[in-house]
Amino acid sequence: MSDTPTHFEAMRHIMSAAHPPLPWQESGQLPWHDQAFSERMLAVHLDPDTHMASRAPEVINRHLDWLLAQMNQRGQQGPTHVLDVGCGPGLYCHELARRGHRATGFDYAPAPLAWAQEKAEGENLNNTFFTADLTDLPVDLAAKTGQVDAITFWFGEFHSFQPEVAENFLSRLLECLRPGGLFVLEYQPWDIFVKEDSNEWSACEESVFCNRPHLWLQEFSWNEEARTEVHVHWIIEQESGNLHRYEQCHQGWPEDELVQMLERVGLVDPAFSPPITGVAEEFEFPMLVTRKKA
Ligand SMILES: C[S@@+](CC[C@H](N)C(=O)[O-])C[C@H]1O[C@@H](n2cnc3c(N)ncnc32)[C@H](O)[C@@H]1O
């Protein structure tokens, strides 16, 4: 195979980029809201044999048993209304509704959200879903959700945002939470971050990034100044040599700073729970439960 100029350009582009990659050069997030990416990602969300993107049903059930017990211990009896942030295909919302609760979810990934909506309609579940971007929440957010008893943020996606962005959307989310209501954060502890650089590559027939044969080069780095893990995906399509770059950043939060930030927005009484999923170690994230100041 002889390289086309496009393949050469792709190589030149990669070679001239910063190595190790710098944090937050783009959004720092996977292209969840891209239609084609979200369609491919939906299949991963719904695959019960993997804990990628969404956990398998038995884990979601275990999470919800734990959540409802937490709410119960804090005096929430009977049916409850939960807002699930970044709900993806709505698996947590559906299960809450099947158990007699009301659950509202939002996300900005089109295919999973459409699937969530269809599933809820098909089963006649007490769910509301709407599109919203955490970095640009609608002014009428609280009107869309109504007042909720708890807000959940599963799977550590919280770390895909820089501290000021996170603080911003948390104060907006609290507009929806009743005083005394719970904010439940599945977070990635400081110690879990791999603070060293590495590279990896694979040849793929297809992946979530591309449905044609491609090379997938990955760079992992830790930026001490920004306390951010940077994960860059380079996709080089085999036929055309077209190059795509996706940047994924994960903000590390020492636990005390996380608690202080939550307190600044009005979330108090932090309680840490060890991982409750009981699955493979890389998916074992702990929980931080706080309460909106009354
Ligand atoms: C790892 S998935 C978890 C999905 C779901 N919480 C679950 O556990 O099944 C992360 C989700 O966060 C959503 N997300 C990421 N950034 C977002 C943003 N800026 N606004 C809204 N949703 C976002 C993604 O679209 C994706 O559905």
Low-confidence stretches: none
Written as H for each helix and E for each strand, in order along the chain, the element string is HHHEHEHEHEHEEEEEHEE
Order of strands across the widest beta sheet?
A: 3-2-1-4-5-11-10
* Share in helix: 25-40%
In angstroms, what is the radius of gyration? 20 Å
Q: Helix/strand-derived class? A: alpha/beta
Report the count of strand segments: 11
* CATH topology-level fold name of the largest domain: Rossmann fold
- Average of per-residue pLDDT values: 94
Q: Name the CATH superfamily assignment of the largest domain.
A: Vaccinia Virus protein VP39
Explain how this protein is built.
The chain has 294 residues and is α/β, with parallel strands linked by helices. The protein folds into 2 domains: 5-30 and 194-251, no CATH class; 55-186 and 254-292, Rossmann fold (3-Layer(aba) Sandwich). It has 8 helices and 11 strands. The chain has helices at 5-16, 35-46, 57-73, 91-98, 110-123, 141-145, 163-173, 255-265, and strands spanning 81-85, 102-107, 127-131, 148-153, 177-186, 198-204, 214-223, 228-237, 243-251, 267-273, 287-292. The strands form 2 sheets. The chain has a 7-stranded mixed β-sheet. It has a 4-stranded antiparallel β-sheet with strand order 6-7-8-9. Helix 2 (35-46) crosses helix 5 and helix 3 (57-73) crosses helix 4. It is globular. The chain starts with a helix and ends with a strand. It binds S-adenosylmethionine.
